[in-house]
Structures are given as structure tokens and as C-alpha cells.
Amino acid sequence: MGDSTLADQFFDAAIDLLQRVREEEAEHIAAAGAAVADTVASGGRLFAFGAGHSSLPAQDVVYRAGGLALMNLLAVPGAVGVDVVPAPLGSALERVEGLAAAVLDSSPARAGDLLVVISLSGRNTLPVEMAVNARALGLKVIGVTSVAYAKETRPRNASGTFLKDHCDIVLDSKIAVGDAELSHEGVEAPFAPASTVVTSALMQAVMAAAAEELVRRGIEPPLLRSGNVDGGHEWNGRVMEEYADRIFYRR
């Protein structure tokens, strides 16, 4: 068999990371799923936050077919995705002190709710303060991050800590510092990031674990169906009506 292509090498790297996460984070995934199930069962609300590209796995579990209807995106204007112009402004906002507190104070989040904070490096002000302030409000916090950054980089926030230091449960994505899986002769910079693939898989695994735990307790998981299958819109309408007080993306 000939030499593998760079595309092949990326798939191999991503598969290896997914396998590591599956094996090494199984206990934490189960704990996170149980925490989500606890929140659903007790009448709490679910929120997910991520800045920049870390917002993609957060958005991936909000208002989607096969997803929990109760998961809401906690958005920070200008920091979600790369639609802000100029794009570097989004990165700058991650270093603004006090922004997380302002967002949380104006959000519907309250004690008894659950917040997933996603940050690959976990070193910037916004995700760290988001976790700190959420816990102070009485929310349970699940952090999804690469613990390698806490070992190999310095914090970039006033507290001198990382996201992992302020979470009830931490899920380690195992992504290496720099988030680039490949290098190649003639290419000056490393390339092919896998953090979105792995982090999105982690989030979906947690949602699956939560559904399994809810069923074990005799509770029907409040899931959405695809609007592109017959009966999907009617199903979703019933779910959204039943849980209207815990769903904020439709208001």
C-alpha cells in the first residue's frame, strides 16, 4: 500500500483522539450525562457556552434533530463564531474582564441550572470568569477543555487559573497545544485542527449518556426530531409547548 495522503493522516489523527477520549474520559462522560439528567429531572435549564471556534460544539447541541430540546446557547455578542467583523475582535473579547458576569446577570440562568463551558485552552478571561460566576450563582458547571494547556501554557486572566479549576466536572479533549494535527515538508505552519471534531463528539456523547440515564429513571428524554421527516414539526411543537418555560431560543 502506498504512502498515506495528508487527508488520510488527518482521519487517523482524529480517530486516535476519539478513541483516547472514549476510553480515558468514559467516567467523566457518564458523570456529565448524569448531571444533565439530574438537571432535566429537577426542573432545571441547560445552557452551553463557547467563544470563537469553541462555540461550534456548543451550537451543535442546541435546537437540532436528535438533541435535547432544553439545551440553550448562552451567547456573548461578538464572541460566538467568526461572524464578527473584524474577526480578531472576537479573540479580544475573550480577554475582557467582567463580560461574563454581565452576560450571566442578564441571562435567564439561575441556581439549579447547568452550564457547559467549552474552551480549548481554558486560559482566557471569558471562559474562566463564566465558570466562576456561574458556580457563584448556583449553577453546576461542566468544562470541556484540553488539560494539556494547563500544563504547558500560562493563564491569560487575572485569576491566574484555568477553566478546569472552576468546574464540577471536566472533560479533557486531549488536543495538543496549538490544535494542529499535521505537519508537512514545504508547509511552514502546522495545520489540520481536530478540536471541533473531538469536542463535538464529546458533547454528543454526554447528551447520549443523559438520555440513557433519563430512561433508566423512567423519564422520557425531551428530544427534538428532524423537521425534514413526516411528523417532525408536530412532534417538536408538542415538546416545545411542554417545556416552554425552559426553552429560550424560540422567544
Describe the structure.
This protein is of the alpha/beta class. Helices cover 41% and strands 12% of the residues. It is built from nine helices and seven strands; from the N terminus they run H-H-E-H-E-H-H-E-H-E-H-E-E-E-H-H. The chain has helices at residues 6-24, 26-41, 55-59, 88-93, 99-105, 125-136, 147-152, 195-216, 232-242; strands at 46-50, 71-73, 114-118, 140-145, 169-172, 182-184, 187-191. A five-stranded parallel β-sheet has the order 2-1-3-4-5, with helices on both faces. Helix 5 packs across helix 6 (125-136).
**How large, in whole angstroms, is the Cα Rg?**
19 Å
Give me the secondary-structure category: alpha/beta
Secondary structure: helix percent = 40-55%
By DSSP, the count of extended strands is: 7
Strand content: 5-15%
Cα end-to-end separation: 56 Å
Main sheet: which strands, in order across?
2-1-3-4-5
Q: Can you tell me the overall shape?
A: globular
- Tally of separate helices: 9
Please trace the helix and strand order, writing H or E for each element.
Answer: HHEHEHHEHEHEEEHH
- Rounded mean pLDDT is 95
- Which blocks of ≥5 consecutive residues have pLDDT under 50? none
Sheet with the most strands?
A: 5 strands, parallel
Domain SIS: 36-219
InterPro entries: RpiR-like_SIS, SIS_dom, SIS_dom_sf, SIS_GmhA/DiaA_subfam, UPF0309
Protein name: UPF0309 protein RND61_08585
Family: Belongs to the UPF0309 family.
